[in-house]
Amino acid sequence: MIGGDAAGMSAASQARRLKGPDELEIVAFERGHFTSYSACGIPYWVGGEVSERDELIARTPEEHRSRGIDLRLRTEVVEIDVDGARVRARDVDSGAESWTSYDKLVIATGARPIRPDMPGVDAPGVHGVQTLDDGQELLDTLTRARGRRAVVVGAGYIGVEMAEALINRGYEVTVVNRGAEPMSTLDPDMGRLVHQAMEGMGITMVNDAEVTKILTGDDGQVRAVATDDAEYPADVVVLGIGVRPETTLAKAAGLPLGEYGGLLTDLAMRVRGHENIWAGGDCVEVLDLVAGRERHVALGTHANKHGQVIGTNAGGGYATFPGVVGTAVSKVCDLEIARTGLREKDARRAGLRFETVTIESTSRAGYYPGASPMTVKMLAERRTGRLLGVQIVGREGAGKRVDIAAVALTAGMTVEQMTALDLGYAPPFSPVWDPVLVAARKAAAAVRNKTP
Amino acid sequence: MIGGDAAGMSAASQARRLKGPDELEIVAFERGHFTSYSACGIPYWVGGEVSERDELIARTPEEHRSRGIDLRLRTEVVEIDVDGARVRARDVDSGAESWTSYDKLVIATGARPIRPDMPGVDAPGVHGVQTLDDGQELLDTLTRARGRRAVVVGAGYIGVEMAEALINRGYEVTVVNRGAEPMSTLDPDMGRLVHQAMEGMGITMVNDAEVTKILTGDDGQVRAVATDDAEYPADVVVLGIGVRPETTLAKAAGLPLGEYGGLLTDLAMRVRGHENIWAGGDCVEVLDLVAGRERHVALGTHANKHGQVIGTNAGGGYATFPGVVGTAVSKVCDLEIARTGLREKDARRAGLRFETVTIESTSRAGYYPGASPMTVKMLAERRTGRLLGVQIVGREGAGKRVDIAAVALTAGMTVEQMTALDLGYAPPFSPVWDPVLVAARKAAAAVRNKTP
């Protein structure tokens, strides 16, 4: 196993369940200090909602070792020799190197944050939030920082989660975003709702702005973020621009990479063309079942599923990962943001013609206390009426409603079929027509009206 | 239209959308004072969470009339003359009767609460909660009642919702239940969790107890509820035993009724064998798509869908209601209770062989604040692995998770397919394996282990 986080260690654990130590020797290389931790939890640790770093660790190195996994921490694999079926590993501290041969190899090298190549990006006070070490360094900066001004670069899900974390730490937060609206995983009309809500929370949102450099003071510390047009004073800067598959090793070894730089696998998570090499987690591309092509989706939930599938197959069983429909949920303060399937531009890129509807409804029966507004956008294919995608922005109860659409997408349902879905109804949970059903009704009408 | 609540008035409104008053004359008979109200909201009005009765009214008589619907309140249809294509209606106040002929008839007579035939059941202080008038009478009793002891008879969803309402009004609440555990729409092992949680809220839960009579004091007011074994002092009694289809008229007219006394329709909601008569809402039986047979399910969400389908068809369009999978959610204080598909006994009655698993998980990532425990039970068919049913008991975030299973049931998914579902994941919304996925994994393993 190359990589000791979600995908790698899930694979190791599952393989160990199927094959005992006398049948299968498992060696796992991890260049960091930690295993099996929730990178997705880092914003909540930074924000103070999670008090201890160790709460984010699902399974410690000791626990893995007690299950008969030969876990080598602070040990970085620096070369994969596919023909020789061996990997070269380096002890991070001593620099000592050695070769280890394998019968089966699992690549779970994860992703690396996009770090723009610009002046000042390495200055003290500028932080990524990919690893637990990153999170600790950011927390140390927050403890020391003299002022309370934070700039978040990027307004994707990491960006908005970090904006919330910094608000919770009492910072004045400015989010500088290259796109027209935050959350580019949504269409801009839905991103606009996020924008408005973030401003309502006191977050300053700067769109259409490319950060060109990071300015430092006489002490070398960050003091501002600059775009072509303006400077945004900052005592701390968080980079939340996104991630790319970490496939340097795989590329050097000649393994097949896709359009986004991720490893390409078959449905059993085997690297294409390699019977005894698997790959999973943030370093692979996954099949988007709606668009019919590969995408890169870095999410812990996929990494865990990949690990499960790889471990089962490497342990002599059979399992597959059929692909994703592109579901994601995130939250900034009490705003919930969810999406699944295709945005308008994805649908166009896939060559689809479609109808789009947007509706407003509420999370509960309108008369029930706590009912909050919710906007649901739905895309359906013209003629067939097949559901293509759903985006939801609202408050409590908005986010996980996207699961209804995620299952419907997986099943290939039409929006007309969705209008008859027997969803849970009671006044504290939903209006009598669930917001997703309201959207489905409107989408079905739009499809019918366009069908001669 | 016979009946002016959800199904009838939805049908009227939808038909009016498709056909103007010059093309279609719509007459609606309603024996009560109100139209289009949320009977499901009554417990929250009684409990004080909804402050005004009128908040429960989705559309007033005046609104319906302004759309060109000839709405006749306090007018009860007392006979359907199918051969003569006419109905006889009686003015409730004056007793005057007249015949009205129809080209198309919609029967939406709703359900009537089961009112056990026992001594004292009509005493002052004993209340049903089916109509807005019932709710008002109960509220009047609560205002006048000298003591603060309430007994709820029945522990189905109306019973538990009324228990919460009475707790909210400051009552000491005892629920007397004929079954082994509350919520007989769940298997008893899941009902037991509801039982424990209700006791934790200070509700006294008496199971396996048949109420034999209601005792009154010298003033004629209710004073206790009696079973064979015991007496439970009561200043107010709420009957929440359930409902039966109100099909007295339909039966007298010779229309086809099913095993539960509900009207039988085709998929377009036409009464079987009658081209120009439709029926919907609580007075019909619906096809249970999982069990493959009719059931009676009194729920506003179905009634609204039926009305929509009937109005479309009666208005010259085409729509169908394919059936239900048996989804229901309810809540008692902060406990959320959900179910969809078949219980163990339903599956046995349907002739199915199945595997059952139960798992414990949490509503959010374990480390995220507010993560609460959740129990998920899942049934899957032996050999095929097809999902048969899901029951969930937990706190915030438990109830609407059942929608995942409701869509999967509709799509005929196997539990193995469900393990790969791309559900929304982020720490505030779900553990990295959603509880429904954890259950699906365990169910898939159970099916595999039983498949030679």
UniProtKB/TrEMBL annotation, chains A, B:
The keyword RNA-binding belongs to this UniProt entry's keyword annotation: no
Domain of life: Bacteria
Short name of one Pfam family: Pyr_redox_2
All copies of domain FAD/NAD(P)-binding, residue ranges: 2-294
Cofactor: FAD
The Pyridine nucleotide-disulphide oxidoreductase dimerisation domain, residue ranges: 330-432
GO molecular function, one term: oxidoreductase activity
SUPFAM superfamilies recorded: FAD/NAD(P)-binding domain, FAD/NAD-linked reductases, dimerisation (C-terminal) domain
Keyword Transmembrane: no
UniProt entry keywords in alphabetical sequence: FAD, Flavoprotein, Oxidoreductase, Redox-active center
Matches recorded under PANTHER family: NAD(P)H SULFUR OXIDOREDUCTASE (COA-DEPENDENT) (PTHR43429:SF1), PYRIDINE NUCLEOTIDE-DISULFIDE OXIDOREDUCTASE DOMAIN-CONTAINING (PTHR43429)
Family under the similarity heading: Belongs to the class-III pyridine nucleotide-disulfide oxidoreductase family.
UniProt-recorded name of the protein: Flavoprotein oxidoreductase
Species this protein is from: Streptomyces spinoverrucosus
